Amino acid sequence: MTIYLDYAATTPADPQVIEVMKHYLGIEDIFGNPSSIQHHVGLQAEEAVEQARAQIAACLNCRIKDIVFTSGATEANNLALKGIAHANQHLGNHIITSAIEHKSVLDTCKALEQDGFKITYLRPDIDGKIALKDIEQAITTQTLLISIMQVNNETGFIQDIAAIAEFAQSKNIFFHVDAAQSAGKLTLDLSQIPIDLLSISAHKFYAPKGIGCLYIRNRHNVSLKPLFNGGGQEYGLRAGTLATHQIVAFAKALMIAGERQQQDYDHALNLRTQLLTGLKQIDGLIINSDLNNSLPNIVNLSFKNIGADMLLIRLQDKIAISSASACSSGTIEPSYVLRAMGIEGDRLYGAVRISFGRFSHAEDIKYAIDKITATVQELRALV
Ligand code: PMP
Questions:
Q1: What's the count of helices (H) and strands (E) in the chain, helices before strands?
Q2: What is the pLDDT of residues 99-128, one digit of tens each?
Q3: Which of 34, 67, 157, 345 could make an S-S bridge to 152, C-beta 3.0–4.6 Å?
Q4: Of 259, 286, 321, which one is at a domain's C-terminal end?
Q5: Is 109 a known active-site residue?
Q6: Is residue 86 part of a domain?
Q7: Number of separate domains in the chain
């Protein structure tokens, strides 16, 4: 039996989402190409896409036309950063981001460096916070864009994006937020916070993988260079046939997440309390997440003198947890996020991420506590 505790990597689709999605695939369903608006089959699909876009915009409290569908947050982050940079180079060539962003932001920044952009990678404090004053100090007359994630995928830390947004707006600098881990979990009222671009990935909140969006505030007035050339879909910003079934699933999942937000949050908080109460019985537990400023569904922790690789190998058929982010595991490099936070030694090499969600139960957490406790004891007995 493997207990899944890697919800930050991806979530299973909600049964209600699967139910909705099924009606957009087969011959009896709404399977048409949403761009084939010369006939009824295509028009029905187009209506479904536009209804979903409106539902998503309502959840985020933004304009319907400001939502551009993408394959997920990786693509949305690429589109935001490369799109703004390449279309607005005349306004400046400097971008500010942080050293703890997801690889889809960091590697995009590396690519932009090759194109002549200057990037400042800010370091967080030991808790994972990016200080507004560091952003203020980093700006130059050339600063075009600031890109900071709302919630970190390894620690769950929540940045004060409202404060950064106000500052960026006051300086006329574009502000992009990677909301892959926060959308559907924290209230995002885009009419209240002056964010220019925001990336969402639906598989983090119980929709299938392969769908997300980039929100572009006042899209008509922002120049953005598209990543792809093609059929002109999404106002020319993202060519490619729209995936109707995934888009309706995305909208359904975001609506459910909105309705259940408090319930899901409280559930995660209860599970986190249970988990940490249990694991605190183990000597040398170190919690790397800042519990007061993190989403409760992600906990990052280390055990003194225990390497994460040894722990994970022994646990892999029992509980699915991860070390560093799923996207960079497979390499034995320790987490660059924790390293940037100033975490070193045992604590760095021993760090594991446990993340849970809507379908996790108290029994799963109990099982995980038992298995982790036994495995840590076994490993300690070996030395
Ligand atoms: N940003 C963050 C913070 C993430 O956690 C992830 C998913 N690991 C991504 C971006 C990439 O999202 P996607 O899987 O939709 O490409």
A1: 12, 12
A2: 999 999 999 999 999 999 999 999 999 999
A3: 157
A4: 259
A5: no
A6: yes
A7: 2
